[in-house]
Write a structure and sequence with these properties.
- This protein is α/β, with parallel strands linked by helices and 410 residues long.
- It is 44% helix and 9% strand.
- It contains 18 helices and 8 strands.
- It has helices at residues 10-13, 80-85, 114-123, 130-136, 143-146, 149-171, 184-187, 190-206, 222-233, 246-255, 264-273, 276-280, 289-303, 318-323, 334-341, 353-356, 368-376, 380-405, and strands at residues 89-92, 110-112, 176-179, 214-219, 238-243, 259-263, 309-313, 329-332.
- An 8-stranded parallel sheet has the order 1-8-7-6-5-4-3-2.
Length: 410
């Protein structure tokens, strides 16, 4: 037994209040300056991609730069990191919610997901457990309102997500991404995605969280496209994940998504195993399929005057990072950041494939049928299935913990 609900502290009381929602249907899209995303490390090893698009400045010995410990928290003057930071917003990837290990990269932000909340509850070491305490005494989540214990459990978890997101929004200077799709059934139903986003937005309004402080994470399914189109029209900003093909990216860009997340290393690894699909996706001439995909998405958005921003994640090494110069955001590990910080900058950084632009395959009208076909001929189908399966397992583990450890005591 980890705590008692009747011991709700004053500091957490605001997260249990039932205030009248202040619904606003317009929200200006920002440039997302300073976005920081906290991400859990992906399980398993990904083969390293070899990038030949940018030659290293001082490939072996990083001449002229003194090797320093990464914990120094200082960007070295004249380093590749300093130069790259001028071309793209660099996003430090960390497994610790709210942690900041390299202050100069900008304000830290966070992701709220089933695994993050479950970790917080298991650790029971910070005031963040109040996210669930407040949810437990939130009147709209009582059985009198929800009608059943199962509905109450879902409501309590949604409210706990919102409470934790509100705490993170107060603590960090960047944005908080909230996972709202917990399984394949929801991911394939646009009405369910929209309803959950609207409900959670109302909960955020109740605790007075600025709508510009958070994004809702939505997976790259066709139902996701329809949900993003409806939500963004209402001013609800969306962070689309698991985007692995050009048709996906174009569909979400045209739907008005605030940001889409692409996966460089995963694409490179998948296309090495499935070379037959390189030609059909116009990636057969690329030395690095993941980097070329990011370039194509960026060029498509520019050609179609789409404002959607791009996060390039699964950046495996320094060469990947240099080749991605000019992308809106790069999600980088401590190791890659440290390597960039210990290398002399050179003029070639600005000539990465993403910064160069170039020709791009045309993307015509996208229907559900063509969208689904594109998923099947790219990593998208497999990655979506794996992502949704993992989310479902995490959600079930969270529900079991809340039901057994807490709800039985009240």
């Amino acid at each position: 037994r980890i705590w008692r609900v009747d011991a709700l502290s004053r500091s957490n009381a605001r997260y249990a209040r039932d205030q009248r929602p202040h619904i606003m249907y317009t929200l200006a899209m920002s440039s997302l300056s300073g976005l920081r995303v906290t991400a859990n490390a992906r399980k398993g090893r990904v083969p390293k991609a070899k990038a030949n698009d940018v030659e290293p400045c001082e490939a072996a010995d990083f001449k002229g730069i003194k090797t320093r410990e990464y914990s120094s928290n200082i960007i070295s003057r004249g380093s590749e990191l300093e130069q790259l930071k001028k071309l793209s917003h660099l996003v430090l990837e960390t497994a610790a919610v709210g942690a900041s290990t390299f202050e100069e990269l900008g304000p830290q932000a966070a992701t709220v997901s089933p695994s993050v909340l479950l970790h917080t509850l298991h650790e029971n070491a910070t005031a963040d457990v109040g996210a669930l305490e407040g949810a437990m005494v939130y009147e709209p989540c009582s059985v009198d309102f929800t009608g059943s214990e199962d509905a109450r459990l879902e409501c309590v978890i949604d409210k706990a997500f919102v409470n934790l997101g509100g705490m993170m929004a107060e603590r960090v200077g960047g944005l908080v991404s909230i996972e709202i799709v917990e399984d394949k059934v929801t991911a394939l139903n646009s009405d369910k995605i929209i309803a959950k986003a609207r409900n959670m937005r109302a909960m955020f309004d109740e605790i007075n969280v600025d709508r510009e402080k958070y994004l809702f994470k939505i997976p790259g399914t066709w139902a996701g496209v329809e949900a993003v189109r409806a939500l963004e029209a209402e001013g609800v900003r969306c962070h689309v994940t698991q985007v692995h093909c050009l048709e996906q990216a174009a569909a979400f860009g045209r739907a008005g998504a605030t940001v889409v997340q692409l996966y460089v290393g995963r694409l490179q690894a998948w296309y090495k195993k499935h070379p037959v699909h390189q030609l059909s996706n116009n990636l057969h001439e690329a030395s690095n399929h993941g980097i070329e995909f990011v370039r194509q998405v960026k060029a498509t958005f520019k050609n179609e005057s789409i404002d959607t921003k791009i996060i390039a994640s699964s950046v495996l090494d320094r060469e990947n990072a240099l080749s991605l110069a000019g992308v809106d955001y790069m999600l980088l590990s401590d190791r890659v950041v440290s390597t960039l910080n210990n290398a002399d900058a050179c003029d070639q950084i600005g000539t990465g494939v993403v910064a160069r632009g170039g020709n791009v395959p045309s993307v015509g009208e996208i229907t559900q049928a063509s969208f689904e076909a594109a998923l099947g001929m790219s990593p998208a189908h497999e990655e979506l299935e794996a992502h949704l399966e993992l989310l479902h397992k995490d959600e079930e583990a969270l529900k079991a913990f809340v039901k057994i450890s807490v709800m039985r005591n009240d």
